Amino acid sequence: MSEAIVAVEGLSKRYGSVRAVDDVSFAIAPGQTVGVVGESGCGKSTTARLIMGLERPSGGTLRFRGEPYGSSARALRPVRRAIGMIFQDPYESLDPRFSVRELIAEPLRAHGRWRDGGETRVGELLEAVGLGSVSLRAAPTEFSGGQRQRLGIARALALDPAVVIADEPTSALDVSVQAQILNLLLELQRERGIGLLMISHDLHVVRRMSDTIVVMYAGAVMEQGPASEITARPRHPYTRALLDAIPGTSPSARRLVGRPRTASGIASAASTGCPFATRCPRVDDRCRSERPPLTGVPHAVACHYPESA
Amino acid sequence: MSAHVEVRDVNVRYGDFQAVTGASFAIERGTTLALVGESGSGKSSLAFAIGRLLPPGGEIASGTVRIGDVEVSSLAGEELRRARGRVVGYLAQDSMAALNPVLTAGLQIAEVYAARDGVSRSQAKRHAVEMLAQVGIQRPEKVAGMYAHELSGGMRQRVMIAMALALRPQLLIADEPTTALDVTVQAEILALARELQREHDVTFLWITHDMGVVAEIADAVAVMYGGRIVERGPAGAVFSDPVHPYTQALLATMVGAQEAAPKTPFAAIGGSPPTGAPPPGCPFHPRCAHAFAPCNGDMPATVSLGADHTAACHLLGVPA
């Protein structure tokens, strides 16, 4: 197996008493995709921000090509050059005052890569994301959501990143456009051997895109392992709950009828024991008092009573 | 027998811009019609027209909307004000924006009763707590005393449902109420909606872009593109025998329905939905895999396919 480009080991982030990210470990290898899933507030976006050095970890180690890196601007510079980021909302993340040319030139300039063929590079990048025919003087406001996200991807690719972090890259797009963007990511990964960290709430998409899946709840990893294993044979009750909540694909195959009408409670994670204990259908006293460790290779699960493998 | 809700040949305009053209459908009492579309499809404009919620500058240029025995499209003034919440209710996507941040959940629901029914404050408060219990909120007395920011997204949406159902509207327009929610919470809200429908004969116009939500909630479906209803019919028929190429493409792009190996391309539709005025002819023709000569010239007529199933596509005029 090829060496990981980015690895996180025991990564943690606390805000006061809140454990936003709690002992998370995974590695992103060239050409591979790690998919991180979980509900809003599970810590998946914070994990991405920690890797990029946009926030300082409270604990754990971040590694780039095997070497630990800290939070100083100097330490982060080569890391940020090697990691491209694609954001959820292409309407918010592109400065409307910039032209297409300036949007893509900006990261090249910021990292001293403009003088050496920058103009040609802009053309190549636009071509790579399927925008070869747009005017360089156009403003992003003239573009559709899908085209804007392609611009966002061109920006993320500007410095030839080894890793791309995509945080919900399609959830703000029209459904008929989402597949185009996912296909573009798959194609770019295949052509360039990019390691991808795909953050999404959509398990169908994550299953199809990923080699490894990390399921997070309340900052902690509930289950982690090969994508096909996690989705075909989930062992954690939380993963099961996520899968069971996916709508069916036709009226003759409804999946959500007959669920209880009551709200699943004011979902505050348990402070001791398993964080999922307050929502778990199989909870007992042990779950409330003793935190289950994440165990098992390659399919790891953090549960006292996992479904049998 | 006539349907509970009847929308006939509705055109919606904002000045010179025609947002909806010739929309017609009917909804039976106690059933759900899903109005499916993407940005620019006209689904929100049509829903606002039916709910008489069009923003200033928007108008129903022609056509009629009847809900129960009320012709909603011709209401004005005090009659229109009284119809809100009773004849037609509206459930918004963004519950944080729709709820008043400085009033407790219970007071906001109680206000609906107090303002419209002339009931006493204490009665209204009691009704509010009962309503919260009905929408599946445990410890409703406690939640009645909480503010929007203290509630989770799912709880806020339940409070919204309680408010929207308070006056037992003849039609409830649900405008993507689960889009901003986590999939687990969405599942609960969809299940709740169906249960409330069964118990109280609620009639839903459910707006969404998500065919998975349609599969779960809809009895009938109307698919919009470029301001027109391009296909409508019973949900079973539309899913099993979609006729319009856009409906077919939307169903084909449902990731969960694709039998595909990991890392293989997703089924995709090229191009993007029209922004601004749709192109001449069939609005879908620039993205349609089957487009041929007449498609960029004339809008195809709506053709009946039997059993309440219709579609507007030139392919239907081509002899097999």
Any overview of this molecule?
The complex is a heterodimer of chains A (309) and B (320). Chain A is an alpha/beta fold and 309 residues long. Chain A contains ten helices and eleven strands. In chain A, strands 6-7-8-3-9-10-11 form a seven-stranded mixed β-sheet, with helices on both faces. In chain A, a hairpin with a 2-residue loop joins strand 9 (212-217) and strand 10 (220-226). The longest helix of chain A has 18 residues, at 175-192. Chain A is globular, with a radius of gyration of 21 Å. The mean pLDDT of chain A is 91. With 320 residues, chain B is α/β, with parallel strands linked by helices. Helices cover 32% and strands 22% of the residues of chain B. Chain B contains eleven helices and twelve strands. Chain B has helices at residues 43-50, 77-83, 95-98, 105-117, 121-134, 140-144, 153-165, 183-200, 211-217, 235-240, 245-252, and strands at 5-14, 17-27, 32-36, 58-67, 70-71, 88-91, 171-175, 204-208, 220-225, 228-234, 302-304, 310-312. Chain B has an eight-stranded mixed β-sheet, with helices on both faces. In chain B, strands 2-1-4-5 form a four-stranded antiparallel β-sheet, covered by helices on one side. In chain B, strand 7, helix 8 and strand 8 form a beta-alpha-beta unit. In chain B, helix 5 packs across helix 7 and helix 7 runs parallel beside helix 8 (183-200). Chain B is globular. The relative contact order of chain B is 0.14. The mean pLDDT of chain B is 92. The interface between A and B is large, with 57 and 57 residues.
